[in-house]
Structure formats: structure tokens, C-alpha cells
Automatic annotation (TrEMBL):
Residue span, S1-like domain: 11-83
Domain of life: Eukaryota
Name assigned to this protein: Probable RNA-binding protein EIF1AD
Biased composition, class Acidic residues, residue ranges: 114-128, 138-154
Organism, as annotated: Entomortierella parvispora
Length: 154
């Protein structure tokens, strides 16, 4: 198998090992030109570079988790390291099982919830999309009762 085909399968299936010097981080946002702002579990923020091997394979968006290799020398640029691995929910579950996951909230509040909570939430209408372009007409109970009474009288 060529190296080009092997990289996508490695990124998606293999769980990256946390080597000495590497740290977990959460992506706060993209700053353009493959530069991302990240936050470590202790609250420290840093700009990091996305290496070319990831650029056309994975999308790093706000809220994603990554493994960072901090820069060894102090450069004149503001970029303080490189992204070594982009973490997927399966990777995060494995790190939690190993007990080395530093973020307390998990993936997201909704992703970490159990199936029972998801069933309870599916019954509420609060999550439904509301179209603000149409006026909302709500009937009060007194109007609906008076209409029913007028229909009964006929």
C-alpha cells in the first residue's frame, strides 16, 4: 500500500500514543492559513500549526480535541507548536478508559450522555428549529373552548 493511502487509514483507525512533551488541547477556533488557536486543560491558550499531512484529510473545527507537540525553540513567530493528531470520539473514549483524559466534560455534554437521557430529550420541543420569519399564532384555552361550545350549539 502506498504511503498516501496509508495515512488516512492510520489517522482514522490508530489511537495515537501520548509521547513525552505532547499535550491534549481543545481547539478554540481557526485563525486562517492552517493556524488554530487551542486551549490546554489548565486554561493556557496557544497558536498551533496544522501540518500538511492533515490538511486535506481531516477538518479541525472549534470544539475538536487534538494532541499538540509544543515548539522546542522560541521562534520569532507567534505559533507555539504543531498538531500531532486529531482526536475522534473513539479515541477520547479509549483515553478515558486508560484514565489519562484531562478534560472533565468529555467530548460534549450531548455526546457523553447516555441513551436514556437522549430518549428523554427527544420528547421535548425546545430543540426544534423555530422559523422567525413567520408570525407565531397561539390559541388560548378560552378561545378554543368558546369555539367548541359554538360548534356544539349548532
Amino acid at each position: 500500500m502506498s504511503r498516501r493511502k496509508q495515512v488516512p487509514t492510520d489517522i482514522l483507525t490508530d489511537i495515537p500514543e501520548l509521547e513525552p512533551g505532547q499535550r491534549f488541547a481543545r481547539v478554540l477556533g481557526s485563525r486562517g492559513k492552517n493556524i488554530h488557536e487551542i486551549a490546554f486543560p489548565d486554561g493556557e491558550e496557544l497558536l498551533v500549526n496544522l501540518p500538511p499531512k492533515f490538511r486535506s484529510l481531516v477538518w479541525v473545527k472549534r470544539g475538536s480535541y487534538v494532541i499538540i507537540e509544543p515548539a522546542e525553540e522560541e521562534d520569532k513567530t507567534k505559533v507555539g507548536g504543531d498538531i500531532c493528531a486529531v482526536l475522534f470520539p473513539d479515541h477520547i473514549k479509549k483515553y478515558k478508559q486508560q484514565g489519562i483524559w484531562p478534560f472533565g466534560d468529555g467530548i460534549n455534554a450531548k455526546d457523553a450522555s447516555s441513551d436514556e437521557e437522549e430518549e428523554e430529550e427527544s420528547g421535548s420541543d425546545d430543540d426544534l428549529f423555530v422559523n422567525n420569519n413567520r408570525p407565531i399564532i397561539e390559541e388560548s384555552e378560552s378561545e378554543s373552548e368558546s369555539e367548541e361550545e359554538s360548534e356544539d350549539e349548532k
